[in-house]
Amino acid sequence: MAVLSMAVSLYAIALLLRPVLRPAFLQTSPVPLMVFVHLAGGGLALGLGPFQFLASQRARRPTLHRWLGRVYVAAILAGGVAGLVLACFSQGGMVAHTGFGLLALAWLYTTASAFLSIRRGAVTAHRLWMMRSFALTLAAVTLRIYLPVSLIAGMSFDSAYPVIAWACWVPNLLVAEWAISRRARLRPVVVA
């Protein structure tokens, strides 16, 4: 997932630097500033996220981990708020608006919970919330997997996109919850 995360991060940067590469619906967005902020925040979060899970880096360079974490939180704050605004203008009607809107809210909530947990010194809770947060960050990756797969499967964009608005993040979050519960069964933890 780290490689795919970095690839989509670079794609977001390319879209930022070369607006002509943006899909038509992004080029004609009624809120172009929000497109820019969402691409910047989401791309940065995708680029930083994998490095935050490296235990060796956290142990050797805790200050770097803290600063990258702060940038990750700021990136999600920007990208999530912009995503919430963009959800109102997404293609796919109310089903897609709701799916993307709830993704933005869950992204902001899990990241804020991770941040507040570490501020309280609850390291284990912080790690669990970060797993959820990054699972939601990876919605950008799964969306870009599901879109071409749905088209190859013969689905029209108009019928696939509302489903993908949910499928790009709900399974990711379920996998994170499964990993958290599995981890708890293997090694009981106290969550603050």
Describe the structure.
- The protein has a single domain (2-186), classed as Four Helix Bundle (Hemerythrin (Met), subunit A) (Up-down Bundle).
- It is built from 10 helices and no strands.
- The chain has helices at residues 2-17, 24-27, 32-52, 55-60, 62-87, 93-119, 123-137, 139-152, 157-167, 170-186.
- The longest helix has 27 residues, at 93-119.
- The chain is globular, with a radius of gyration of 17 Å.
- The chain starts with a helix and ends in a 6-residue tail after the last helix.
What key attributes describe this structure?
Four Helix Bundle (Hemerythrin (Met), subunit A); single chain; mainly alpha
Q: How big a fraction of the residues is strand?
A: under 5%
C-alpha end-to-end distance: 28 Å
Task: Tell me the major beta sheet.
Answer: none
In round numbers, the mean pLDDT is 93
Low-confidence stretches: none
Give the number of helices: 10
Rg, rounded, reads 17 Å
CATH architecture: Up-down Bundle
Number of strands: 0
CATH topology type: Four Helix Bundle (Hemerythrin (Met), subunit A)
Q: How many domains, in number, for the residues?
A: 1
Shape: globular
Proportion in helices: over 70%
Structural class: mainly alpha
What is the CATH C-level name? Mainly Alpha
Return the string of H and E elements.
Answer: HHHHHHHHHH
Brief synopsis:
The chain has about 190 residues and is mainly α.
Task: Write the SSE topology.
Elements: H1 2-17, H2 24-27, H3 32-52, H4 55-60, H5 62-87, H6 93-119, H7 123-137, H8 139-152, H9 157-167, H10 170-186
Helix pairs in contact: 1-3, 3-5, 5-6, 6-7, 6-9, 7-10, 8-9
